[in-house]
Amino acid sequence: MPEENIDEIIQEILSEEKKVxxxxxxxxxxxxxxxECPVCHHQVYEDAKFCPYCxxxxxxDVDYKMLIETLIKKLKFMIPLARELxxxxxxxxxxxxxxxxxxxxxxxxxxxxxxxxxxxTLIKSIVDEYxxxxxxxxxxxxxxxxxxxxxxxxxxYLEDWxxxxxxxxxxxxxxxxxxxxxxxxxxLEKLESxxxxxxxxxxxxxxxxxxxNVVDTSKDMADARKYQEAVKVLNEALTPIKDEIxxxxxxxxxxxxxxxxxxxxxxxxxxxxxxxxxxxxxxxxDEGNLVKVLEKMDEINKEMSK
Length: 306
Known about the structure:
Helix 7 runs parallel beside helix 9, helix 10 (242-266) runs antiparallel to helix 11 (270-287) and helix 11 (270-287) runs antiparallel to helix 12 (290-304). This protein is mainly alpha-helical. It has helices at 6-15, 17-24, 64-84, 90-104, 108-135, 145-159, 163-203, 209-223, 227-235, 242-266, 270-287, 290-304; strands at residues 34-36, 43-45. The protein has twelve helices and two strands; from the N terminus they run ααββαααααααααα. The chain has a domain at 241-306.
């Protein structure tokens, strides 16, 4: 019998992958063991005494006192959320009040009925409000893998009415999305100022091709959602043409000096404005802010044209 070669052995091993994956799958509960809760329509076990989502009671031999304690704990967490979401609490507060009255008289089944109604009304309202909040972050899913993962997890918790875990993930996602939006905004603002500065530089006869290459690199980083790194690259976008900027600025300032002298002798009122702009130009040059240097050169040029 001919000996199997390495490729054949590898293929046989790989062919077992599907069997291994199938064998490792979690046990799926047969449909006949589940049924739909008539109140909240979640799938629950066939032999459940109460719904683990809305806490509607299916059988009377339940520990009402324990269920009341469970719902009180959940309501204590949810009521501040409801206030934050501006959910009307009139009917809910009334049901809680009735529940307390009956529970105080040891009529736990009746007290529980009111408390469960309050809980059901409140959790439905909270879920509906948070679904609207989640819609605001749908566009962010395509910008960041972490946000996409958190959005999926938060959606699952919301679908299961697991508000406590949902809030943890949602707040984390919101913070991440806020930071990403802030970074994106900072990048776009920096990009706009740099590109504007390059247009000014071209107007002064400066070859900006080296700087454009740097800007293109920053755009590649931005496409990869690396906005902070992209901003750092943009901060150095004009460095390759610093010498050219300095050379043009020196020639430009000689012309400005002559214009200021003429304006001063002729009593032209824009001399003071030009001097003020020159002082600002010096500040930005000393600071090394080439974007602002070019902007001030442009402002001075426009002031002299008046």
